[in-house]
Design a protein that fits this description.
Elements (H helix, E strand, L loop, with lengths): L14 H19 L4 H22 L7 E6 H4 L9 E7 L5 H16 L4 E6 L1 H10 L1 H8 L2 E5 L1 H14 L4 H18 L18 H15 L5 H5 L5 H25 L11 H7 L7 H34 L7 E4 L3 H9 L9 E4 L2 E4 L9 H12 L5 E2 L1 H13 L8 H12 L3 H11 L2 H5 L1 H6 L13 H14 L10 H8 L5 H9 L10 H15 L4 H12 L3 H8 L5 H11 L2 H18 L6 H19 L5 H22 L4 H8 L4 H6 L2 H12 L9 E5 L7 E8 L4 H11 L2 E10 L4 E10 L8 H15 L24 E5 L7 E8 L4 H11 L3 E6 L2 E2 L2 E9 L8 H16 L1
Parallel strand pairs: 2-3, 7-8
Antiparallel strand pairs: 1-2, 1-4, 5-6, 6-7, 9-10, 10-12, 11-12, 11-15, 13-14, 14-17, 15-17, 16-17
Length: 887
Amino acid sequence: MTPAPAPQWPATITLASGRDCLERYQHWSAEAFITADIDFLLQHRSQFMDAMLQQLWQQFGLASDQLCLFAVGGYGRGVLHPYSDIDLLILYQSPLTDAQQQAVRELIQLLWDLRLEVGHSVRNTAECLAQAEADVTVATSLLEQRLIAGDEPIAQQFNLLIQQQFPWTSRAFYQAKLAEQQSRHQHYHGTSYNLEPNVKSSPGGLRDIQTIGWIAKRHFQTQSDESLVQHGYITAAELLELRDYHDLLARIRFALHLEAGKAEDRLLFDYQPGVAARLGYGEPGKRSVEAMMKDYFNAVVGVNELNSMLLQFFEQDILASHAQLQRQPLPCSRWAQEKAQQQGVTKPEPMFEQIGQSIAAIEDHVFNTPWHLLEFLLVIANHPSISHIQAHTVRLLRHARTQLRQPLSSDPQCRQLFLALLRHPHGAGTAFRLMHQHQLMAHYLPPWQQIVGQMQFDLFHAYTVDEHTYRLVRNIHRYRGAEYQHEFPLCAERMAAMDKPELLFLAAIFHDIAKGRGGDHSELGERDALNFAQQHELPPDDGALVAWLVRHHLLMSVTAQKRDIHDPEVVKQFAEVVQTSTRLDYLYCLTVADIRATNSTLWNNWKATLLENLYHATKQFLAQNKPNAATEMRHRIHQHQAHAMGLLLSAGFQAQAIQELWGRFTADYFLRHQPEQIAWHSQHILLVQSDEQLPLILLGDENNQGTTELFIYHLEHEHLFAAVAAVLDSQNLSIHDAQILATRDGYVMDTFVVLQHDGQPLTDSRHIESLKQQLHDVLRKRQPVPSGQRRLPRRLRNFNVVTKVDFVSERNPRRTAFELVALDRPGLVARVAKVMQTLDLNILAAKITTVGEQAEDLFIVTSRRNQALTHEQKQQLREQIITALDD
């Protein structure tokens, strides 16, 4: 469909008429975008700017036989996005006259006043070559220069000199552009799977496609992409595939510029719904965004594969490095050898060879037999020095994928090899990475195909489901590596003791495989795991364990972070679901790896401590043959007291003074604190001579949890929690756990676990002293409780979380527990505490959990008379919290 005619430049371009024409053109572009081909739009905008510049060149009297106006960079390629830079080169033969210099200044000033992003340089040929020699970016822009206005003979001579005297050899230019790409990728942590990717510069983005073109243009001295096909570096099908990826990414970038109203290449949350709508994915919302991002991520994965393959081809040709490397035939796997012997072949011929750190197929037809694809991976696992696949073999793999007519798992030989790979000590390392990277996993397991590129529009999941699952498998594999064992010693120890670690890898593969289908992904994934176990003829007990792990893969994380694991009843309920130490070991290792693979900012020492404490408590519970909860509570209190007493006596305190102090404390205090904490609190309280010295404020990490513990000992103080929460928020600190306890004689002992917003403990001495002083002044009422509210961060403004307050069962009948789900925001806990202060309620405990943009917090409260809330009080609390948070 042909769009309506575009606006034309007026006969004389002034500031007013130019702005009007540009505004009308932007509206035309937005309308034309709905139906027009992206190449047409990009070229049309470039031609539209050409017409303007040609007219202004005449208008400012610059039409001289001594000057040329060139487009360079992206504009030189003849394509422009709505707010792309317009990069210009004014080339002169003789120095500019004063009049010409003034005209150039006025021309550029008008372009800036028209709000165009213009970059320009005024140089002669020698200066161009000198700048190009000094800067590969300038050299690259000269490869794509295009005459807009001026003397054509001068332009032709300039083109000839650029070709003849280009200051970068093919080798040097390739190495410089490769280093440039590697540096750019490193800026994005080497991954395409960013929540808010840069469509132009992220790995697999438009810049990676352009890099291939630049190197080809320099090497073949051509402006045509088709030259890659003519010289045998890319097939016609691969070129078409690359163009399809380019068109999708270019359409996303074009829509992004329109949506942002400026030059913006970051696909920020702010713009994703609007961009998805402009691209025709449906009304703005979560579903349309996830559909768009699925296409985006599939495209960048394809670009990454082609970019890597083609650059490797260039390296082999330009650097001639491939020919210098020794070729080492690689023996077939044990499985393949045994298969050959069954067929009467004593020693099968190698199918693959190692060239440097790459693996290559010896014969082009090797992948015509489907099970050879899995054999290929098993051979990689047998040789840990292999890091990548040789370029020609990547092409063979890509062709083999297109020839598959059924999933690889439908072949019994492939199934045997896949299990052999998972059982191999190195199978989940490089081999699994390449299996994921080159889409063989999607061709092995049909359900995996559905999660490829499956993005979740939230702040919790930083990666697509397939990339997250790959990272989870990688994390588990690292438990085996000696260089990583110090990071997670308990996981390494438990995994080393497993008889069948491959079951842990299978649980990892299936834990999220049903996401995006609707329904409970844990239940659907459990069914998929059982089907896999049956198809692969796993023993029934093995299949049942994998299925159980998939069904309950969130159980340990939820229990540790959202429940009071100091309560033996909570541990008992968790242990009753787990049932066996074997399940506990697998679940613990899976949970740690899962959290770390979800989002790099999620994991911290506090979470590690919670999970490890729950693991040990459950292990002890299962070993004691399910003891009575009350008996277990008394035993733990006695243990804590005995250990803390030893620490205090060794520090020089008297047993009688310690016993007198502890006589004022409740049993709950000893249950909920570790011996090191009890000793730390006690020794400082024992040194308090009078109430005038209060509040006692301690900050440290006596429990070695990698967090900051704030302990406050004070006379009974109304709404102390609300005051402390407000101070912590004003200091940009977040509460992760709180225990509000009272002594038997009118004092409070409140413990808060706090972290900075980057998940790190508070270590700066000046910040610590500032916090102590502010807390002291507020609690002594020397200064008011902070009341300012910080602005909602940009990334949170695009999410709508319905505030919910649900009351849950609480073991103590005199207490009320409720769960709060709300949009996470600065000062959330302080606002909730303010509501409870207004309603005259006591906060006894709080567990604060942030899941991306969503806060999922647990509070335990009582009325002013230390009773559970009535139905009316619950309703009032729910209404006021929702009102306070939704304002």
